[in-house]
Specification:
The chain contains 8 helices and 5 strands. With 193 residues, the protein is of the alpha/beta class.
C-alpha cells in the first residue's frame, strides 16, 4: 500500500496535480503532516481551522467559511488539513488524494494532552490571535477530549461509507493506522520528491 500511494503521489507531482486532503480525528496530527507534505512538494498549505476561526474563537458563518475554502482551493495545487463536514464537498471533490490518519483513541487522547499543554503553557498564538486555554479542555463542553471521544468511532464508521460514494470515487484514499506507518510513507515520499 505504501509504495502504491507513493507512486500515485509521484505521478500527481509530475503532472502538477497535487491536491491532498489530510483528515482524521482532532489531535491525530493532520496539520503537522499537511505542513510536511506542502513543504516537500512546494505547494500551499491550507489549514481549515484558520479559515473557520476568527478572533476570540468566533466561528465564521457557513457562507463565509465556504467562500474562504473555495478561494483557498481555487489554486492548481495544495494540501488541506481539517475535518469540516461543511467544506467536505468542496475539498474532497477537488482533491486527488485523501490521507486519513486513523489512529487509536488512546494515542489521540495522549497527543491532545501534550498539544494542549504545549500550546497553553507556551501561550502559543494560533489563528487570528487565538490561544488555547488549558482548563477549557477539562471543565467545559468545548473540550477537545470530549470531541475526540464523541467523534472517533463515528468518523471510522462514516468514512467507510463516504469513501464509497460516487462523488468521491476519483480519490486515492490512503489510511494510516499508526504514526510509524505515516512516517515510513513520508520517508518514501521524500525519496521520490
Amino acid at each position: 500500500m505504501l509504495s502504491d500511494a507513493t507512486s500515485n503521489l509521484s505521478l500527481a507531482r509530475a503532472s502538477g496535480n497535487i491536491r491532498i486532503v489530510v483528515t482524521g480525528v482532532t489531535g491525530s496530527g493532520k496539520t503537522t503532516l499537511a505542513q510536511h507534505l506542502a513543504k516537500l512538494f512546494c505547494v500551499p498549505h491550507i489549514e481549515l481551522d484558520a479559515l473557520y476561526w476568527g478572533a476570540d474563537w468566533t466561528p465564521a458563518s457557513l457562507d463565509n467559511f465556504r467562500r474562504r475554502v473555495l478561494a483557498a482551493t481555487g489554486r492548481a495545487q495544495w494540501v488541506v488539513d481539517g475535518n469540516y463536514l461543511a467544506s467536505r464537498d468542496i475539498t474532497w471533490t477537488k482533491a486527488t488524494m485523501v490521507i486519513w490518519l486513523d489512529y487509536s483513541l488512546p494515542l489521540i487522547l495522549w497527543r491532545l494532552l501534550t498539544r494542549i499543554l504545549k500550546r497553553s503553557l507556551g501561550r502559543e498564538v494560533l489563528w487570528n490571535g487565538n490561544q488555547e486555554r488549558f482548563w477549557t479542555h477539562f471543565l467545559s463542553r468545548e473540550s477537545l477530549f470530549l470531541w475526540a471521544l464523541q467523534t472517533h468511532g463515528k468518523i471510522r464508521t462514516d468514512y467507510q461509507v463516504i469513501f464509497r460514494k460516487v462523488g468521491y470515487a476519483h480519490l486515492k484514499v490512503v489510511r494510516f493506522e499508526s504514526p510509524s506507518a505515516t512516517r515510513r510513507w513520508l520517508d518514501l515520499c521524500s525519496l521520490v520528491s
